[in-house]
Design goal:
The complex is a heterodimer of chains A (52) and B (261). By secondary structure, chain A is mainly alpha-helical. Chain A is built from two helices and no strands. Chain A has a domain at 2-33. In chain A, 6% of the residues are buried. Chain B has a single domain, classed as Beta Barrel (Sortase, Chain: A), CATH 2.40.260. Chain B contains four helices and eight strands. Chain B has helices at residues 3-19, 22-25, 31-77, 254-257; strands at residues 103-108, 118-122, 135-137, 148-153, 174-178, 182-194, 216-224, 231-244. Chain B has an eight-stranded mixed β-barrel. In chain B, a hairpin with a 6-residue loop joins strand 7 (216-224) and strand 8. The chains are: A mainly alpha (52), B alpha+beta (261).
């Protein structure tokens, strides 16, 4: 899958590396700013209060 | 600017490669390989999520809370109120009924770092208060400076991790609660560990149900041990001094309050 992605990217190796680096930053940003905060609500809430 | 020239330079080379070496190396994509790579990717994303939840997001939420608190303090500065408390021996106490999830106070603990400046909201709702990175005030307990117990809860780790270092408090450490009226200085006294059902810790006189309070206490509750909810860690402090807003913040926290720490 990733090998195929590398093959379909145009240009010499450093252009492909640059494209992948930009794509990686985009994916990580999307995860941190949207996906993780959204997924967080499905994680069991940690109870920090005292109650009966 | 440089791209057209490079394209021309690269084109013959790429074309040559495509006709020569590349086809021999090209393999069919196997479903099993794709599945494996997807699983590895999923594993990496789960690890990234844990890193975000337990570490990165605490930094993000912490700095957001700090910025919001500095802003709120400056808003309150516009209506400073009297320089003396209404009663000589007692600090002013919020008398208004605060609606659930509304922010009304802020917490400053120098032991937790110079940038530690977090907001306190009414109620201990998981989603409307605690998971937003705020500390939650047990609505049945008293207000800051009042006779009795000002009890607040927050996360130990994740969602801002407001009480991550609660176990590092030293006897006599100052715990400041800021409201529109000014700063209430409490002195940390002791830690206690209880079961999640140990509601006695938020009584007006902690662990003494039904006793009339004569002291002004603060109680912080969080979960213990780390990454677990098996127990609760409790920190108690007793009221020491009130600093009216009109006189400015106490020197110990002046840099934190003005956002210059």
């Amino acid at each position: 899958m990733y090998a195929a992605l590398w093959r379909v990217l145009p240009g010499p190796w450093w252009v492909r590396t640059l494209i992948l680096a930009v794509a990686l930053v985009a994916v990580l940003s999307a995860l941190v700013f949207w996906v993780f905060p959204w997924a967080d609500q499905f994680v069991a809430p940690q109870d920090v209060t005292v109650s009966q | 600017m440089r791209e057209p020239g490079q394209d021309q330079a690269a084109a013959p080379q790429a074309g040559g490669r495509r006709g020569g070496v590349r086809p021999r190396l090209r393999r069919r994509i196997s479903p099993l390989g794709v599945l494996g790579e997807l699983l590895i990717t999923a594993g990496v994303i789960v690890l990234l999520f844990l890193g975000w939840q337990q570490w990165l997001n605490d930094l993000i939420v912490g700095s957001q809370q700090h910025a919001l608190s500095v802003q709120q303090s400056q808003t309150w500065n516009k209506a400073p109120g009297p320089t003396k408390a209404p009663q000589p021996d007692a600090p002013p106490v919020i008398s208004a009924v605060i609606p659930n999830a509304q922010k009304f106070a802020q917490l400053i603990v120098p032991r937790f770092g110079a940038n530690y400046y977090r907001q306190i909201a009414q109620g201990t709702g998981v989603h409307d208060v605690l998971n937003k990175g705020e500390l939650g005030h047990y609505p049945t307990t008293q207000m800051p400076g009042a006779l009795g117990n000002f009890a607040i809860a927050s996360h130990r780790k994740a969602y801002g991790g407001n009480l991550e270092h609660i176990n590092e408090l030293h006897v006599g450490d100052h715990i400041f609660v800021e409201t529109q009226d000014g700063w209430y200085q409490y002195e940390f006294r002791n830690l206690q560990y209880v079961r999640p059902t140990g509601v006695g810790v938020i009584d007006p006189v902690p662990e003494e149900a039904g006793v009339q309070p004569t002291d002004r206490m603060i109680t912080l509750t969080s979960c213990n041990p780390f990454f677990s909810t098996a127990e609760r860690i409790i920190a108690y402090g007793s009221f020491d001094t009130f600093y009216p807003r009109a006189d400015g913040p106490p020197a110990e926290i002046a840099a934190t309050v003005t956002g210059k720490a």
